[in-house]
Amino acid sequence: MQTMNPQPWYKQFWPWFLISLPLSAVIGGIATLIIAMQSPNAMVVDDYYKEGLAINETLARERAAADLGLSGLLRHAGGTGRLQLELMIRDGEGALPGHLELRLVHPTLAHKDQTLRLEPGNDGIYVSDMPQLSPGNWHLILSPPDASWRLTGRLVLPQGGQARLTPGV
Questions:
Q1: Potential cystine with 7: which of 11, 54, 82, 153 (Cβ 3.0-4.6 Å)?
Q2: Which long-range contacts (CB under 8 A, 24 or more apart) does 100-103 make?
């Protein structure tokens, strides 16, 4: 008669397989927690109520731009690395501001947002140096220093060389 000597549990396949399932869930949960703590979601707004109230102000600024008949064409002058903005006003009404502010807003990462100062050049063209921007969609917000009106548009990089700015895209 033959006696069986079973192997110790740690040398068998099934105990390790059964231990690996919950262990992988624990490791995955810890990795998810570490990722969540190291990169907070920048798209979350802290004060929703304040953001909601600001919408009315934004709409009023866009209506003011529409009432003035403002529009613009922003061009990236290829080899010079300069931005050129041609600002058009209906029937030449009103004086153009001394300088303009152009906000380049990244759709998801607020730390990439930039604000440029466009200075008046020749023939009503405003100019500024073009900053180094990452590829993707960029939202453009153009306003005078007093923020009395606002034009918006979108620039797609790297292929987009120009963008149309209008009141309330």
A1: 11
A2: 100/126, 100/142, 100/143, 100/144, 100/145, 101/142, 101/143, 101/144, 101/145, 102/74, 102/128, 102/140, 102/141, 102/142, 103/140, 103/141, 103/142, 103/143
Amino acid at 53: L
Classify 69-165 by CATH class.
mainly beta
Structure tokens at 112: 């990439």
Report d(CA 27, CA 101) in Å as an integer.
Answer: 49
Reported pTM: 0.69
AA letter at 129: D
Written as one string, the DSSP assignment of 92-128 is G-SPPPS-EEEEEE-SS-GGG-EEEEEEE-GGGEEEE
Q: What are the extents of the domains in the chain?
A: 12-38, 69-165
Residue 20 is inside which H or E element, if any?
helix 13-38
Give first-to-last CA distance, the chain, whole Å: 90
pLDDT in tens, 6-51: 889 999 999 999 999 999 999 999 999 999 888 766 666 667 777 7
The reported pLDDT for the residue numbered 110 is: 82
Give dist(CA 66, CA 141) in Å, integer. 15
